[in-house]
Structures are given as structure tokens and as C-alpha cells.
Structure to design on (300 residues):
């Protein structure tokens, strides 16, 4: 799942190629991904991309009226935002030779939305792999109209140490769940929470409200440094390379069975019904191997 560093890198990449240029056309292959109907997605045609940024893990393409806008309204909408949440298996593919043939509606291919923008012939496809379709797209005047954005917690990179500590002290959840709950703090997902907790030498099952001041200090500093390092490594990369570049920087996530790069212990995994996380027993749990919920059920 794309997290804050990848979404930030995608936003910067698209902004550098689309900002200042009009959206020539938007093709929708899967109407199911559209979560809004007013304004219609066709209203984006002819509008100019003002900027591309992110809110949490949401990609936000802000558009303003263009000289060739196809909007027939006497007073064009001052701002229309195209908001994209890539969810677990979504991605954005930029092309300098984007196909001019609209993707077939209802087709079995991965393309959900195609946006013709940037220099002539350029643009991007929004794709989703797998059978679980969770990709979501909104066309809104105000990003606050997206209920998922309205319910987001503060951005993890915008929080002060005191705000971070207050959030942790006010919840009884496990620290792994707190870091990944977008309503509590926005931007971190499964992969970077594994990396942050490993670097901070904390068990994923540690109670957030029970952490000492020293542990909160360490976790806050580590969280920012892990994300900053990832953002730095992804900066300037081609969108097509972001996934592989992300994997090269991971120490524990998705490395089950491999040696920990810090202590050499074997990276372990805890699996649930549809997800899993990884950790190092020596670095994080005092040598204790956490129960694998999936394996526990199989042994009953």
C-alpha cells in the first residue's frame, strides 16, 4: 500500500509534469471508483492543473479554470479537486505516450481512470491490481467534502512532540494500531510502522499510553527520521521505480525469515486474516516470539 513517502513522491512527480498544463480529457473505465457525481468528472476537461499535493495518503490534484475549459457554466468553478486514494493495490502510471484510446468500461484490465494532462500525448493511468477493489476517486470543490479526509487525524510530519505525546497518552490501543489508524494520525501504513517500531526498539503490541517519556521521545524522533529518509530516497525517482526503491530501504517489513540487519536474529511475522506485520524479537520484544494468530488458529 502506498504510504506518505510514496504518495509525496508521486505528487511531486506529477506536479512537475502537469502543473500549469490543462487536463485535456478524463476517461473512466470503472465507474465504481467514483465516489462523487457533482461536479461530474467531465468538468475537469479544459481546466488547468494548479498543483498536485497530498493530504495524508491521499493524492490531491487541484485545478482552476482554463482558457479552453469545456465547462459551459457562466461562472466556472474556481477550484475543482481530483482526489485519489490508491488504497492497498492501486498505483499511478505516468506515460509520455499515453494511449488515446479510452480504456474499455467494465473491462477486466487494471486501468480504472485515465487522465490526459501535461505535454501533448502525456498523462497517467490510475490502476488497481487484484480482485479486492478499494481504489477511490472523488471530484470535489473542497477536499473537506471527502468524508475520509475530513475524519483524518493530524499529519504525522506536522505534529509536534507534545501533540504526539498527548495522542499516545489518550489512547489505550497497541502502538502498532495507533500509528496506522488514519483517524488518529495520517500518513503511516503497515510497512513504515514496522520500520519505525524496529528502529525505536518497541514491540508492536506495546500499549501506547504506557510508554515512558523517553520512549515517546525516541518514537517521535524515529518516526520523523524514517519517513524523512524514505522521502529523500524516493525524491526525483521515476514513478515506475518507486515501489522497488521502497523495498530496498526496508529492514524488517516483508523480510520474514531473513536476518535482522541490526542484530542478526530472524525476522518474525504475525499474520491476521488479510494482513501481517514483521518484527525482530531481539531488537523489539526482549527475545520473545509473538504469537502468530493465523498459526494459532491452525493448531487448534
Amino acid at each position: 500500500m502506498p504510504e506518505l513517502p510514496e504518495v509525496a513522491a508521486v505528487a511531486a512527480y506529477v506536479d512537475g509534469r502537469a502543473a500549469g498544463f490543462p487536463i485535456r480529457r478524463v476517461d473512466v473505465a470503472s465507474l465504481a471508483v467514483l465516489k462523487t457525481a457533482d461536479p461530474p468528472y467531465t468538468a475537469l476537461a479544459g481546466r488547468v492543473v494548479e498543483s498536485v499535493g497530498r493530504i495524508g495518503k491521499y493524492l490531491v490534484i487541484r485545478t482552476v479554470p482554463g482558457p479552453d475549459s469545456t465547462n459551459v457554466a457562466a461562472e466556472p468553478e474556481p477550484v475543482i479537486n481530483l482526489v485519489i486514494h490508491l488504497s492497498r493495490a492501486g498505483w499511478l502510471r505516468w506515460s509520455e505516450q499515453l494511449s488515446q484510446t479510452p480504456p474499455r468500461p467494465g473491462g477486466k484490465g487494471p486501468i480504472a481512470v485515465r487522465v490526459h494532462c501535461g505535454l501533448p500525448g502525456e498523462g497517467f493511468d490510475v490502476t488497481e491490481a487484484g480482485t479486492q477493489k478499494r481504489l477511490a476517486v472523488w471530484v470535489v470543490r473542497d477536499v473537506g467534502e471527502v468524508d475520509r479526509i475530513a475524519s483524518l487525524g493530524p499529519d504525522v510530519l506536522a505534529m509536534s512532540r507534545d501533540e504526539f505525546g498527548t495522542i499516545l497518552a489518550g489512547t489505550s490501543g497497541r502502538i502498532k494500531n495507533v500509528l496506522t489508524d488514519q483517524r488518529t494520525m495520517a500518513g503511516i501504513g503497515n510497512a513504515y510502522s514496522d520500520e519505525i517500531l524496529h528502529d525505536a526498539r518497541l514491540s508492536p503490541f506495546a500499549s501506547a499510553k504506557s510508554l515512558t517519556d523517553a520512549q515517546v521521545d525516541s518514537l517521535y524522533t524515529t518516526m520523523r527520521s524514517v519517513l524523512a529518509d524514505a522521502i529523500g530516497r524516493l525524491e526525483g525517482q521515476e514513478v515506475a521505480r518507486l515501489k522497488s526503491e521502497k523495498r530496498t530501504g526496508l529492514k524488517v517489513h516483508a523480510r520474514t525469515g531473513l536476518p535482522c540487519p541490526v542484530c542478526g536474529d530472524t525476522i518474525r511475522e504475525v499474520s491476521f486474516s488479510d494482513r501481517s506485520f514483521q518484527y525482530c524479537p531481539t531488537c523489539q520484544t526482549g527475545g520473545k516470539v509473538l504469537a502468530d494468530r493465523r498459526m494459532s488458529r491452525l493448531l487448534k
Notes: DSSP finds nine helices and ten strands in the chain. The mean pLDDT is 92.
